[in-house]
Amino acid sequence: MARTAPSQTVGFDEPSVLAEAQRRRTFAVISHPDAGKSTLTEALALHARVISEAGAIHGKAGRRSTVSDWMTMEKERGISITSTALQFGYRAPDGTDCVINLLDTPGHADFSEDTYRVLSAVDCAVMLIDAAKGLEPQTLKLFQVCRHRRIPIITVINKWDRPGRDALELLDEIEQRIGLRPTPLTWPVGYAGAFHGVLDRRTGEFIHFVRTAGGATIAPERVLSAGDALTIADAQWTTAVEECELLAADGADYDRDTFLGCTTTPVLFTAAVLNFGVSQLLDVLVHYAPAPAAQLDIDGEPRRLDDPFSAFVFKVQAGMDTSHRDRLAYARVCSGAFERGDVVVHAATGKPFTTKYAQSVFGQQRTTMDVAYPGDVIGLVNATALRVGDTLYREVPVHYPPIPSFAPEHFAVARAADAGKHKQFRRGITQLEQEGVIQVLRSDLRGEQAPVLAAVGPMQFEVFAHRMATELNTPVELEPLKYTIARRTRPQDVAELQAQRSVEVLTRTDGALLALFADRWRLAAIEKEHPDLVLEPLVAAA
Ligand code: G4P
């Protein structure tokens, strides 16, 4: 979702909506699997006193059952597939009150399309890096999505309690590989593996962390002057001070405009598992991360924050609660105040939509959501009419731009394993397609009973098959196809393309005509032989 330059000004005409929007911080954590995203999420919740003990969210390896990994498949694989939104209030030590909306993103590359949708709903991202590993492939891909969407990034270098790489070297890697200039706000005292605390570059003070048993509770912090720091950390403090002098000489200082303009990134150091550095991150979110700004509609016109309610759907998910078999649409509020029970307009159909069942959802935990403001995420229950990308509004019509689909690279024919279950099969396909689990392509040749599924990553097929069998009680058979490339084409080019060897043209449900090719050589040969054909690339996967 395109947005205007973030504004921090609060107007006077609708003080409550603007003031409430101003308090919101809506962000996602982007990282490679295992960098510590779940641990950090939990640590943030612990610091905001949403939970009283670590282990409530992060459920791996014997800790208490996880909140975000709720699907069986996720549990078995230990990955987070689905998107959830955690909302909590947080009062910073200086008394600033904020509402934090933390949107969870799937960690696996196969679900990058899902991640892309979630990132369309945030105002900021936290790029979480493992101190021993530096920038990893999935982090790089997600970073590119943020860059594409112009999302400001706060960098967090995690696991500093373990042996890892040199801090300056990690900053260099960030600058060299992704062209984002790091501007550290804190600097580690002690090398990776011996983490005593951080030097706060803004005050010059030493924030000394104290370990708690198993990292289960908030780690106490002592704020010490530079003089006192010397007596505690001595050589390590001196090294930290020297390194900070190097950073200052290099001009690596925080700058609001370049941070919001996505050319610099504030950096923090943490050990999320010990809850070290987490309060500093919350503080940075409160004081530095942008509040929601006016969103641009499909014509590029901004919808003011205090205009009547509007929101867009960035995620549709069914089967979260197997006992209820419900279907949830997540919508990000862009303008106005939302009150549960409001009747809003579904822009795609022009029909009224009643929001009686609005919830705040994080994993299995649901709470009724009575009011919401720009930046908040509403979970709308049993929203069967809503699709990803749809706009909802009140009073003054608005239409937000659609969220683009990614170019699929994996294709398979789906058939019902039980020939008598065609009706359920068709219903299941429609539902999972509307949720964005897979794209569905059809042709007269293949018929309704054997549509082609298209996916960015092959694990989407597994999720599809698993959910068809378990939730929709319709086991399917999948026959992989040898295509790897899809291009958008025109009706007048179909006959020519179909005449080519190993090329097939199918229609996606949104009406797009997609020509499928076995590989880029085949595509290149056809493009060369028939330069008149239109073969447009689709949005590349992150
Ligand atoms: P993810 O969601 O990004 O995939 O990562 P997750 O939080 O599950 O963390 C991956 C592993 O890294 C976990 O270890 C977790 O405890 C560990 N970890 C996270 N943050 C830190 C940190 O700051 N320091 C250290 N030393 N480790 C950290 P695990 O062995 O997979 O699970 P567990 O037994 O610790 O739960």
TrEMBL record:
Domain spans labelled Tr-type G: 22-293
CDD domains attached to this UniProt entry: RF3
GO cellular component terms listed in the entry, alphabetical order: cytosol
Residues that bind GTP: 104-108
Record-level GO BP terms: regulation of translational termination
Location relative to the cell: Cytoplasm
Domain of life assignment: Bacteria
Record key words, sorted: Cytoplasm, GTP-binding, Nucleotide-binding, Protein biosynthesis
InterPro entries per record: EF-G-like_DII, EFG_III/V, G_TR_CS, P-loop_NTPase, PrfC, RF3_C, RF3_dom_3_sf, RF3_GTP-bd
Molecular function GO labels: GTP binding; GTPase activity; translation release factor activity, codon nonspecific; translation release factor activity, codon specific
Function statement: Increases the formation of ribosomal termination complexes and stimulates activities of RF-1 and RF-2. It binds guanine nucleotides and has strong preference for UGA stop codons. It may interact directly with the ribosome. The stimulation of RF-1 and RF-2 is significantly reduced by GTP and GDP, but not by GMP.
Family of this protein: Belongs to the TRAFAC class translation factor GTPase superfamily. Classic translation factor GTPase family. PrfC subfamily.
Listed name of the protein: Peptide chain release factor 3
Higher taxonomy: Bacteria, Bacillati, Actinomycetota, Actinomycetes, Mycobacteriales
Gene field: prfC
